[in-house]
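Hi support team,

I've been running sequence recovery on a batch of backbones for a student project. Most finish fine, but this one hangs at about 90% for roughly twenty minutes before it completes. I'm not sure whether the input is malformed or the queue is just slow. I've pasted the structure tokens below so you can try to reproduce it. Let me know if you need the job ID as well.

Thanks,
M.K.
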């Protein structure tokens, strides 16, 4: 859902382009869940990666490649995205969409549970300077802990849906997704090595900077 306020911003500053619209159409055509990042969040991620100068990006939750396009198109020459996804069928669609966007060489997918892929990346000594967390919400606290093991000091973590339909502050809502997001936001706010903020954009985007010195 895009509010009138969000539509004003998008129309004036960064309307969703044909590539991104094409991915949304493809998702609907194939009956996949329509849960890509909001266009405003996508545009913001592109801006953030450019400003930060990130080269090595980790994405947790690929779906059809919408956010991967937003991240990969912001990379400098030689930059790369590693995207983690449990559903192999989604990875096929994501790779087709990245191919159409001319970005397939900038994104590698790892198929499997993100929790395990993160351990593999750590064992391989892979390190990143930007991470997008956007998979199953109950595991957000685990993803934060494991991402911190592979994030370079000075790196940035962005986590989507951290207001979760405004349920996150409603004490009457107690399900696993809400609990995961609440815990994640508390960890991001209180972790001594993180400087964080929850931007109330779209469904909420928590941003955390991994401090170089604590
Ligand atoms: N970031 C994508 C975008 O904006 O284009 C949307 C990702 S969608 C919200 C969440 C994705 O996480 C789904 O494709 C789902 O299959 C994947 N997922 C869910 N649980 C997972 C897990 N345990 N490990 C890896 N991926 C998972």
């Amino acid at each position: 859902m895009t509010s009138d306020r969000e539509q004003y911003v998008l129309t004036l500053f960064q309307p969703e382009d044909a590539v991104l619209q094409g991915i949304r159409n493809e998702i609907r055509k194939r009956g996949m869940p329509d849960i890509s990042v909001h266009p405003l969040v996508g545009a913001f991620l592109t801006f953030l990666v450019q400003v930060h100068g990130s080269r090595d990006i980790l994405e947790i939750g690929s779906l059809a490649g919408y956010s991967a396009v937003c991240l990969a198109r912001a990379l400098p020459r030689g930059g790369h995205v590693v995207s983690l996804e449990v559903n192999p069928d989604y990875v096929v669609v994501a790779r087709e969409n990245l191919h159409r966007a001319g970005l397939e060489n900038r994104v590698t997918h790892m198929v499997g549970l993100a929790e395990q892929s993160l351990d593999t990346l750590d064992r391989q000594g892979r390190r990143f300077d930007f991470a997008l967390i956007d998979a199953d919400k109950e595991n957000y606290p685990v993803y934060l802990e494991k991402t911190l093991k592979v994030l370079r000091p000075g790196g940035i973590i962005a986590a989507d849906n951290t207001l979760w339909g405004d349920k996150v502050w409603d004490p009457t809502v107690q399900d696993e997704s809400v609990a995961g997001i609440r815990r994640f936001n508390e960890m991001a706010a209180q972790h001594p090595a993180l400087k964080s903020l929850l931007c109330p954009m779209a469904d909420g985007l928590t941003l955390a900077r991994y401090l170089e010195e604590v």
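--
Follow-up from support: It reproduced on our side and the slowdown came from queue contention, not your input. Strands lie at 56-60, 80-85, 107-111, 128-133, 151-160, 194-199, 205-210. No action needed from you.
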